Amino acid sequence: MTTRRLPLIPGLVTLLVLVIAVLVWGIYRKARMDEDSLQIAVSTTEEVFSTVSGQRLAQLAHPTLLEQRPADSLNAYVVSIPRIMGTLDAIQSISGATDVSLFPFSLRPPRANYAIELIFNGNPATAIMAMIYAEEGWQFTAFRVDAEMLFN
To answer: Which residues, including other chains, have CB under 8 Å from residue 137's CB and lie 6 or more apart?
Structure first.
């Protein structure tokens, strides 16, 4: 009976090592995607409001965002924010995270949602965005700015 259990132990150890390796890879991948999506969210927000052009946002837009708001409309929207609010003074904070499976066989693409607190000419605003990871990298599926000044 003990001779039959001996081949089972190396098999279980191998399986355990494999599961641990997959989880470690998933944790590394999630950390990398968190960092990449955060960097793209901040740099794109800063670029579009510093240059007062939605061109970069349109380049990184997912087809679903472009269906809702074509590139020209997206550019006009971005241009309207500093026209109403003033120049971008600062990015105060960012909150949000990615939703990435730790397992490599997930059929669900990674997603990210962020809210970036901005100051335009002393006026607070929040840029709210959603992103999805496609073959080309992170793409915006939603982008809007909320500010009391925009609603008046």
So the answer is: 36, 40
- Provide the whole-model pTM: 0.83
- Residues 131-152: tens digit of each pLDDT: 999 987 999 999 999 999 888 6
Q: Is residue 129 a contact partner of residue 114, using CB atoms and an 8 Å limit?
A: yes
Phi, psi (rounded to 5 degrees) for 14: -60, -45
pLDDT tens per residue across span 62-92: 999 999 999 999 999 999 999 999 999 999 9
Inter-axis angle of helices 71-85 and 2-50, nearest 10: 60
**In CATH, what is the architecture of 2-151?**
Roll (3.10)
Cα–Cα dist 62/130, whole Å:
10
For residue 16, the surrounding DSSP H or E stretch is helix 2-50
Domain ranges of the chain: 2-151
Contact criterion met (CB below 8 Å) for 130 and 112: yes
At 1, the pLDDT band (50, 70, 90 cuts) reads very low
Would you say 81 and 143 are in contact if contact means Cβ atoms under 8 Å apart? no
